[in-house]
Amino acid sequence: MSTTLHNELDRFYIDHKFNSKGKLSVALVITEHAKKRGLPLDAESLLTDGGGQVYGLGKGAVQSILARHGIDKVLAQEGGRTSRGSIGNMREYVEFLNTFSENELDLIELFWIEKVNIFFSGKPLKIKLDSSQSLRSLIKDLIQQAESRQKESQGVYYVGAILQHLVGAKLDCALGVGHFTHNSFSTSDAQTGRNGDFFIGNVALHVTATPTESVISRCKDNLEKGQRPIIVTTKRGLTLAEGLAENVNLATRIDIFEIEQFIALNLYEFAKFDEQGRTVAISDLVSRYNEVVMQFETDPSLLIEIQ
What we know:
Layout: H1 3-15, H2 21-37, H3 59-68, H4 86-97, H5 105-121, E1 125-127, H6 135-152, H7 158-175, H8 189-192, E2 198-200, E3 203-207, H9 213-224, E4 228-233, H10 235-247, E5 255-258, H11 259-270, H12 275-296, E6 304-306
Parallel strand pairs: 1-6, 3-4, 4-5
Antiparallel strand pairs: 2-3
Helix pairs in contact: 2-4, 2-5, 6-7, 6-11, 7-11, 7-12
């Protein structure tokens, strides 16, 4: 596969979040339609008679394609058929697929098979609901899992991504969805010109595993604009951030929190300090976290599974 073809496919995969089992199913089945019918495809002809579903989109069709490539795991029990967004996903993909030639379709199918293999290989992080364990230790264990994966996968910054989306999910649980904008972890402040990861009112939150002078510089920019900066970091990062802030005489003007406490205290409040409410609070946090990851990231190994 040429670098150009792969890059175009990867850009679509990332921009349109085609990393879920339903969207992957759509990509496989529509590519198969293109191989049989030729290009360009007419999106309207790919709807069932009632117009409510994508023609041919089902478990059998998806598994048949996967079987050709030696994959016997079930991607989606309904093959994406019951997904409310399948028709919209199909239209997006058809428009994109029509920009290619028919002799590229086999390579395009291989690209989606590669993404399916990534989907199956992405093992989620684990949270074990153990009433004997403190809430801080649950968050600490998650971060330790991320640190272990980061050491094994050079160039993949699991810790930073997980911290960012945990904080974002916690804020959504506390305030309700829609009060601020989420971004992918790769959308860095430097690339976008943002002076923070989350903005709520006049507060700018910076979430970082390893505080640097550039983070403190962005906090200084916040202060100059009348904003109140907050840094949320790891236990090790807390001392580092405090020292960096002290170096530029901003120690008394920047709130710096360690993430285990930042998350755990809110969980107690969400649970109303009740034992049964604790389980619900953790489940709500993990559910919202997973929604954010599925929307803004393409790596399923960032997801969290409750045991």
